[in-house]
Write a structure and sequence with these properties.
Elements (H helix, E strand, L loop, with lengths): L1 H20 L31 E11 L3 E13 L4 E15 L5 E3 L3 E9 L7 E11 L12 E14 L5 E14 L15 E12 L2 E11 L9 E13 L3 E6 L2 E2 L7 E11 L1 H5 L2
């Protein structure tokens, strides 16, 4: 099956990059400053420290064959301990346009999640994190701003630092989304099937001064379950500019590589952190 081919390719890529670059660094792993707070399509392993708050604003535009959309999610993360964080994300405004139809707009869905991280495992340059998210369909189904699914997503993140390669990092995220219909469009008999989704992403980032260059490769498919019809693959290059005052500005450009994916897009992300670590920094 095609999706198994891509899953195997993504996993093999991560393992190959980790193994081939391992000889480029020593075993003297130490805790290093966090080079970047967020990338664009994949989660990172870094947790918020105890009492630390991160606010993120994202503007995500995408253009497909016969549709375009604009989403503006707001995200808040809070560190309960130095390893454990909680977060909430709300799609404050969505705007969708289909060819030959009127443009619709309004609020989107809400998600709540938690993540626990294991940094520098056994004194190495490897990190991992486990997390769980719940998405609640608060957007309008009639306006197609929500699919009406209640979603549960457990996920795993793996990462490896390569300090001798300019503090480069390789990271990977794997998750499965279990879905069930919570709301349905009135009078509709052709709802999308409640098919579980498999998501995998691999990527790298490398800092150069105040800039961090990123690249990501992401697959999302539900074709393996319950008559699912979607298989989306994206390649996303990007750059993040780290500014004084714990502020970051990032721009990414997703490019769709499958028929189901949007052809291209643009992501603008603003990230601001404050809390105990900020106050204690010299």
């Amino acid at each position: 099956m095609k999706h198994l081919f891509w899953i195997i390719c993504c996993t093999a890529l991560w393992l190959a990059l980790t193994t081939s670059l391992a000889s480029a660094q020593g075993d003297d792993a130490v805790t290093r400053p966090q080079p970047v707070q967020e990338v664009f399509q994949t989660g990172l392993v870094y947790p918020q420290e105890r009492g630390e708050v991160q606010l993120s604003y994202t503007s995500r535009f995408s253009k497909g064959k016969d549709r375009s959309s604009l989403q503006t999610p707001l995200n808040l993360e809070y560190g309960i301990t130095d390893r454990w964080q909680i977060e909430i994300e709300w799609d404050a405004m969505s705007r969708r346009t289909k060819t030959g139809e009127a443009t619709t707009s309004g609020r989107g869905d809400l998600s709540i999640g938690t993540q626990y991280s294991f940094m520098n495992m056994k004194g190495s340059n490897f990190h991992s994190a486990v997390g769980f998210e719940v998405s609640i369909p608060t957007g309008s189904i009639e306006k197609e701003l929500s699919e009406g699914f209640l979603e549960y997503t457990p996920y795993l993140i793996l990462a490896r630092d390569l300090p001798k390669l300019n503090n480069m990092q390789i990271f990977s995220q794997v998750g499965v989304t279990f879905v069930q219909h919570a709301r349905r469009k009135l009078g509709a008999d052709d709802d999308a099937p409640a098919a579980q989704k498999f998501d995998v992403g691999v990527g790298t980032f490398m800092p150069f001064g105040h800039l961090v260059f990123t690249s990501e490769f992401n697959l999302s498919t539900n074709r393996w379950n319950n008559g699912g019809r979607e298989r989306e693959i994206y390649a996303t290059p990007g750059v993040v500019w780290r500014l004084p005052g714990n502020l970051e500005i990032g721009v990414g450009t997703p490019v769709g590589l499958t028929r189901d994916a949007d052809k291209f897009g643009a992501i603008l992300k603003l990230v601001y952190e404050f809390g105990p670590r900020t106050a204690e920094a010299p």
